[in-house]
């Protein structure tokens, strides 16, 4: 019977019900989208790292797992590392920020193409590597190659021009995404433009035998960080590096997520509070009627909290559906900028946050309803 | 069924209804002694009831008549356990209201006292049937109607209007649904506050006849508050109130 009353009440004020569901849906979407983008961005970074084909990354001290946007290492290190026994290829890269998470990367394309392929030494055929969907590798100093997501987002084709770092670039080719940054240019040109001649951001190493990567890393850490192998230059196998690209290892991102969850929860709480407060005011007389026929505080609280629970559940479902909408939007509107994943593990978390927030938002209106004087409520117009 | 078609008394329907069991001894079902109620309005004390004494016998249909401000509605609210008295004693069916907790007052309203209000006070989002059923649900009883109660619904002439919401019912129909709701849990006392106050004369007659029939045929104790002497005449006895006192 209580369920019938709740559904009847929700149906009686469809706009209020819809707005409440929408607000909780937006709260859930905010949480799931942010988490999805965080996971998606980290996973995309990991995919791109794996797509490089290197066995070992050497990064400067104090660099962030999320990206490299400075070039503090001398490029002489590339030759030194390349000369190590077991190393078949060493290639340096220069990463320059274009603002936010957007970067442009300078590489030696022929080396990186070898790195990304199955090549393991002289005599090996180069299979795999960069796959061009349109155009081809950079030839001139002003040439840039872009990945398919960037090309789609910016609607560029070979022959088009792009202005980055106050420089006009000629789009030479569009490659299949999943390797390095979304924009690649010649390393020496980028070093010159960014004022970091002879300096690099990281070195990628390819070994003759990839199974020796762990031992090689240990040895290299001892050599490059003689005081403490775990401090100084950051030297990782690809597996180690990609495992670092998780939410728990990116402290700022985790804090940011918590802040957004906090804001979303407050928004949900306020909306439900307002909605239920209005509902209790609107139903003053009805609450009086229920009290007149003997309904106690438990019965009235049961009605209000179950109504809130229902709104929160509908809102959560709506929010999850809405999250697929944002995912679709990002995939089609900004495929090169943001990658959103569906993180199923966060569905119950987002639902719990929405439901608990909504329940807390109902406490004060519910207490008001319970304390309402029946005779005054019955005379309420 | 429209109001015009509603029989004033469907006596045939009553043949199947059993009157409430008569008690061996008959102490008053309602006993009020020196009842006082003071409302604090701002800095002013309003003495709504000033020492009311009243006995209502089991099975009696009592009309309380008084002008606006005479204290009859305050008496109604106290007898129904909706508001506590300031002083005095009120015994309902052998239980002293003064010593009751809120929970016990709720129990009183669930099982002992039924209300009929001037403005019907039906829940607008529920159908007529659901408005009656929810009272059973509040009392923790099964919501399905038994045969006896279906007879009552037929007697009230609303058995074919049960699936309509209040807004689709006439005033007379709404008040008859309110009467059904008030007696669905078999209360010992039916309190009616100006039950015809919002009705035209034809519907007033129907409702008053139904109340009288409930009293005569089922032995339902009824205490009706009204300002209308004609309506009061339907009762067995009329008590007049003025300035918070029974005359």
Summarize the topology.
The complex is a heterodimer of chains A (381) and B (247).
Chain A (H helix, E strand, L loop, with lengths): L1 H11 L1 H38 L4 E4 L13 E2 L1 H7 L4 E13 L2 E6 L1 H7 L16 E4 L7 E5 H7 L6 E4 L2 E9 L7 E4 H7 L5 E2 L1 E6 L5 H12 L9 E4 H7 L6 H32 L1 H9 L4 H37 L13 H25 L2 H5 L3
Parallel strand pairs in A: 4-9, 6-8
Antiparallel strand pairs in A: 1-11, 1-12, 2-10, 3-4, 3-11, 5-8, 6-9, 7-8
Chain B lengths: L10 H4 L15 E12 L2 E13 L4 E6 L5 H8 L7 E6 L2 E2 L5 H10 L1 E4 L11 H11 L8 H10 L14 H13 L5 E5 L7 H18 L2 E6 L2 H4 L4 E6 L2 E2 L1
Parallel strand pairs in B: 3-8, 3-9, 6-7, 7-8
Antiparallel strand pairs in B: 1-2, 1-4, 4-5, 9-10
Task: Please tell me the overall pLDDT of chain B.
Answer: 85
**Residue windows where pLDDT falls under 50 for at least 5 positions of chain B:** 1-14
How many β-strand stretches of chain A?
12
Distance between the termini of chain A: 26 Å
* Largest beta-sheet details of chain B: 6 strands, mixed
CATH topology of the domain at 60-84 and 112-246 in chain B: Rossmann fold
Structural class of chain B: alpha/beta
Mean pLDDT of chain A: 85
Q: Calculate the terminal CA-CA distance of chain B, rounded to whole Å.
A: 42 Å
Helix and strand composition category of chain A: alpha+beta
| Principal-axis shape of chain A | elongated
Query: Percent range for helical residues of chain B?
Result: 25-40%
Structure annotation, total helices of chain A? 13
User: Portion of residues in helices of chain A?
Assistant: 40-55%
- Quaternary structure state of the chains depicted: heterodimer
- What is the general shape of chain B? globular
């Amino acid at each position: 019977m209580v369920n019938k009353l709740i559904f009847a009440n929700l149906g009686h004020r469809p706009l209020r019900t819809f707005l409440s569901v929408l607000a909780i849906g937006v709260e859930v979407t905010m949480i799931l989208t942010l988490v999805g983008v965080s996971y998606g961005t980290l996973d995309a970074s990991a995919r791109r790292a794996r797509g490089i084909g290197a066995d070992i990354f050497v990064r400067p001290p104090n660099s962030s797992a999320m990206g490299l946007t400075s070039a503090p290492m001398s490029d002489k290190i590339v030759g030194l590392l390349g000369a190590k026994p077991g190393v078949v290829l060493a290639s340096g890269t220069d990463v320059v920020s274009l603002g936010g998470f957007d970067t442009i990367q300078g590489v030696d394309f022929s080396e990186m193409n070898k790195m990304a392929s199955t090549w393991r030494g002289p005599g090996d055929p180069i299979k795999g590597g960069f796959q061009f969907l349109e155009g081809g590798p950079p030839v001139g100093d002003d040439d840039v190659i872009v990945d398919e997501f960037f090309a789609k987002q910016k609607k560029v084709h070979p022959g088009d021009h792009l202005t980055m770092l106050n420089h006009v670039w000629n789009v030479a080719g569009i490659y299949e995404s999943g390797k390095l940054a979304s924009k690649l240019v010649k390393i020496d040109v980028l070093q010159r433009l960014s004022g970091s001649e002879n300096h690099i951001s990281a070195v990628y190493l390819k070994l003759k035998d990839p199974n020796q990567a762990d031992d090689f890393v240990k040895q290299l850490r001892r050599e490059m960080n003689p005081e403490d192998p775990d401090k100084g230059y950051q030297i990782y196998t690809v597996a180690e590096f990609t495992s670092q690209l998780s939410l728990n290892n990116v402290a700022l991102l985790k804090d940011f997520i918590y802040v957004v969850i906090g804001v979303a929860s407050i928004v949900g709480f306020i909306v439900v509070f307002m909605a239920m407060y209005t509902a209790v005011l609107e139903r003053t007389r009805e609450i009086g009627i229920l009290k007149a026929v003997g309904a106690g505080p438990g019965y009235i609280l049961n009605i209000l909290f179950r109504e809130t629970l229902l709104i929160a559940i509908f809102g959560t479902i709506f929010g999850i559906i809405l999250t697929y909408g944002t995912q679709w939007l990002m995939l089609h509107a900004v495929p090169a900028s943001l990658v959103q994943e569906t993180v199923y593990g966060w569905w119950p978390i987002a639902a719990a946050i929405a439901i608990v927030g909504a329940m807390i938002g109902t406490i004060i209106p519910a207490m008001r309803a319970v304390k309402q004087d029946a005779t005054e409520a019955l005379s309420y117009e | 069924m429209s109001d015009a078609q509603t029989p004033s008394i469907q006596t045939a329907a009553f043949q199947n209804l059993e009157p409430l069991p008569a008690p061996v001894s008959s102490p008053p079902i309602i006993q009020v002694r020196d009842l006082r109620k003071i409302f604090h309005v701002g800095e002013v004390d309003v003495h709504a009831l000033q020492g009311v004494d009243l006995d209502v016998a089991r099975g009696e249909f009592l009309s309380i008549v008084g002008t606006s401000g005479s204290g009859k509605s305050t008496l109604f609210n106290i007898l129904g356990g909706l508001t506590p008295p300031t002083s005095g004693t009120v015994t309902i069916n052998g239980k002293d209201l003064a010593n009751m907790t809120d929970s016990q007052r709720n129990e009183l309203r669930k099982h002992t006292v039924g209300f009929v209000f001037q403005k019907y006070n039906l829940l607008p989002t529920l159908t007529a049937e659901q408005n009656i059923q929810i009272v059973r649900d509040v009392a923790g009883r099964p919501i399905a109607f038994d045969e006896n109660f279906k007879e009552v619904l037929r007697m009230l002439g609303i058995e074919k209007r049960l699936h309509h919401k209040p807004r689709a019912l006439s005033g007379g129909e709404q008040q008859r649904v309110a009467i059904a709701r008030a007696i669905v849990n078999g209360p010992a006392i039916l309190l009616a506050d100006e039950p015809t106050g919002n009705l035209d004369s034809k519907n007033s007659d129907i409702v008053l006849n139904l109340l009288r029939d409930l009293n005569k045929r089922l032995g339902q104790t009824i205490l009706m508050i009204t300002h209308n002497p004609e309506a009061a005449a339907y009762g067995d006895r009329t008590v007049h109130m003025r300035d918070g006192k029974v005359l």
